[in-house]
């Protein structure tokens, strides 16, 4: 299927200087770079992307249409290359560095297909490798999602790209030495025997130890970004680096979704503050746009530049690091004189034709795959209101998960009631009445989680539900309220609002688990009338709870499930489990599994929430 694009790359393509102007590029002085061999002031341009998440084209595989959102953004490495090539052309002859801050090989059906259906470990070439090689990256940091498909997949991807994957804080548990290259050093010939030496240090996320515990435990450890930067930045300076740039898959605003169990998840600002001799940081992981931010190093008083381009290739960061040649003891050295950054918008340019051509065949294969019909739905089912009411499409996830666990249980565990968690990953998810495709099911379960189950008590169940009820803002009265006025409450670990994927509901398989969430009450006192099969749940009562590996390994910081006894772990991917269920049963009928088992209340009275 040919890609739908807003502008044809064959006629009237937006490229070169026109592309930069349209993308919001602000020209800056060249500092003699056009005759760099004669100047003692030179600009290093650092081009940066992050969180590409398997997006090559401006395409939404779940909607089977060109990507669009309310902000008018467009996505993909093909557009990124157009922007990067335009900057390179405009700054021809100057030193230029191109880097990425991680989360590359997961996030779209395109990426999933070549990890699981036609895996690169069996001979396929990853489409992101094809695309990024054509861009011409110098290095990329490892993201946490690089580990989702196993270490063998990362290593194969590492073989397929023409640039190193950096991870100074992905270390061997015994030697404590990095198992990926910690950094690269690039030398730029500036003429007259002069050289600019630049070090790029790659740092990834400590949360990998939690989120992909089953994959990395005993094989890799992930110490803190600050701790490892304090080791390797001095090493880079000792090696003669004039500038040290960090590519960090870690957000700028210090926080952790997992509390204090590990070094901070989002620690880019801490690195800037606590590690001397860092000149600039390309930030990733947080999916935010930071055009330009300065952080003061507490030891040296120097300003460190931070920038984070928007995810999926929506933006490209352009850093201008201007250095001056200064004489001192020993050889003259380049000293940072100024640092600025800007971001360029991908929605203003056409896709690069070379990237498009290189990946088009793989894209077409995946489009055909995701649009293949696997069954049908008796009625339309929508996830739009899943954050405020019990809806059948979420019940479907719980039902399939619980059924798979129940079938596999043996011994004493087989006699226990089986419950299942589910969360509204995408409010746009829907099953149409009639034919259901792989795309429909994948749009409901967008993450590459595997199914697990643990044994918990009634008391632990209640505490789990109290924790998930933090998702709601406290209100007075029964409304009506807009959805935004009751959902996505900020917390200490989610200061910008609790994401939808951290709102778990729990359903029973053979009998209903019913409860009210009283959001007129403070956090910790919201779950009322908790019952299983119409009988109040007791503290000592035992259940089997189906969860995903992200939750069981500590993702979101939910209580008890990380320490509870694991009774099921067959490494079954939940998305594929759902697809297989539809394929085997053919008809998705809510009458077989759906019921309204939880509700939002205020003082015991139902709350009305508008769209």
UniProtKB/TrEMBL annotation:
One Pfam family matching this protein: 5_nucleotid_C
Co-factor(s): a divalent metal cation
Molecular function per GO: 2',3'-cyclic-nucleotide 2'-phosphodiesterase activity; 3'-nucleotidase activity; metal ion binding; nucleotide binding
Primary residence: other
Key words of the record: Hydrolase, Metal-binding, Multifunctional enzyme, Nucleotide-binding, Signal
Coiled-coil intervals: none
Any one of the GO BP annotations: nucleotide catabolic process
Gene Ontology CC annotation, any one: outer membrane-bounded periplasmic space
Superkingdom of origin organism: Bacteria
Domain 5'-Nucleotidase C-terminal span(s) in chain numbering: 373-562
Catalytic activity: a nucleoside 2',3'-cyclic phosphate + H2O = a nucleoside 3'-phosphate + H(+); a ribonucleoside 3'-phosphate + H2O = a ribonucleoside + phosphate
Residue ranges of domain Calcineurin-like phosphoesterase in the record: 45-288
Cellular localization per UniProt: Cell envelope
Signal peptide: 1-32
SUPFAM superfamilies in alphabetical order: 5'-nucleotidase (syn. UDP-sugar hydrolase), C-terminal domain, Metallo-dependent phosphatases
Enzyme Commission number(s) from the entry: 3.1.3.6, 3.1.4.16
Entry's family note: Belongs to the 5'-nucleotidase family.
PANTHER family, sorted: 2',3'-CYCLIC-NUCLEOTIDE 2'-PHOSPHODIESTERASE_3'-NUCLEOTIDASE, 5'-NUCLEOTIDASE-RELATED
Protein's UniProt name: 2',3'-cyclic-nucleotide 2'-phosphodiesterase/3'-nucleotidase
């Amino acid at each position: 299927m040919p890609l739908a694009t807003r502008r044809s790359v064959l006629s009237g393509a937006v490229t070169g200087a026109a592309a930069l102007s349209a993308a919001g590029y602000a020209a800056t002085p060249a500092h003699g770079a056009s005759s760099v061999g004669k100047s003692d002031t030179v600009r290093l341009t650092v081009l940066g992307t992050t969180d590409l998440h398997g997006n090559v084209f401006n395409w939404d595989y779940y909607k089977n249409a060109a990507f669009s959102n309310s902000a008018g953004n467009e996505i993909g490495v093909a557009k990124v290359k157009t922007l990067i090539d335009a900057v390179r052309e405009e700054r021809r002859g100057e030193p230029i560095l191109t880097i990425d801050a991680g989360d590359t090989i997961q996030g779209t059906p395109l990426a999933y297909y070549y990890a699981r259906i036609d895996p690169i470990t069996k001979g396929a070439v990853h489409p992101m490798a094809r695309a990024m090689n054509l861009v011409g990256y110098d290095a990329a940091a490892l993201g946490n999602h690089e580990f989702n498909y196993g270490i063998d997949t990362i290593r194969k991807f590492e073989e397929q790209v023409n640039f190193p994957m950096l991870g100074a804080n992905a270390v061997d548990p015994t030697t404590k030495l990095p198992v990926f290259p910690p950094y690269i050093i690039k030398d730029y010939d500036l003429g007259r025997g002069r050289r600019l030496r630049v070090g790029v240090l790659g740092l990834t996320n400590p949360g990998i130890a939690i989120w992909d515990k089953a994959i990395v435990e005993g094989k890799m450890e992930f110490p803190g970004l600050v701790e490892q930067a304090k080791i390797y930045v001095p090493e880079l300076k000792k090696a003669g680096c004039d500038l040290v740039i960090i590519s960090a898959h870690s957000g700028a605003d210090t926080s952790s979704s997992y509390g204090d169990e590990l070094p901070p998840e989002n620690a880019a600002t801490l690195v800037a503050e606590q590690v001397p001799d860092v000149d600039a940081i390309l930030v990733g992981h947080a999916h935010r746009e930071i055009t330009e931010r300065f952080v003061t190093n507490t030891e040296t008083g120097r300003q460190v530049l931070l920038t984070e381009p928007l995810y999926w290739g929506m933006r490209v960061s352009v850093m201008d690091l201007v250095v001056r040649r200064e004489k001192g003891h020993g050889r003259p050295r380049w000293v940072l004189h100024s640092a600025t950054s800007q971001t360029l918008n991908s929605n203003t340019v056409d896709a690069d034709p070379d990237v498009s051509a290189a990946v088009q065949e793989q894209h077409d294969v995946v489009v055909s795959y995701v649009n293949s019909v696997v069954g049908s739905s008796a009625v339309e089912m929508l996830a739009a209101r899943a954050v405020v009411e019990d809806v059948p499409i979420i019940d479907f996830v719980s039902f399939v998960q619980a059924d798979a666990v129940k079938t596999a249980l043996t011994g004493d565990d087989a006699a226990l009631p089986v419950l299942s968690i589910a969360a509204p990953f995408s409010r746009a998810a829907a099953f149409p009445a009639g034919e259901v495709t792989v795309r429909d099911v994948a749009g409901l379960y967008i993450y590459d989680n595997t199914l697990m189950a643990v044994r918990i008590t009634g008391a632990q169940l209640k505490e789990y539900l109290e924790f998930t009820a933090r998702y709601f803002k406290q209100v007075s009265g029964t409304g009506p309220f807009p959805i935004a006025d009751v959902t996505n409450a900020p917390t200490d670990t989610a200061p910008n609002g609790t994401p939808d994927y951290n709102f778990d509901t729990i359903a029973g398989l053979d009998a209903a688990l019913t409860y009210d969430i009283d959001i007129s009450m403070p956090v910790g006192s919201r779950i009322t009338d908790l019952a299983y099969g119409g009988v109040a749940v007791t503290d000592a009562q035992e259940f089997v709870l189906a969860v995903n590996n992200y939750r069981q390994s500590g993702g979101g910081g939910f209580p008890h499930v990380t320490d509870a006894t694991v009774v099921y772990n067959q490494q079954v991917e939940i998305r594929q489990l759902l697809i297989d269920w539809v394929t085997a049963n053919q008809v998705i009928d809510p009458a077989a599994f759906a019921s309204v088992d939880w509700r939002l209340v205020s003082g015991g009275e139902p709350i009305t929430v508008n769209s």
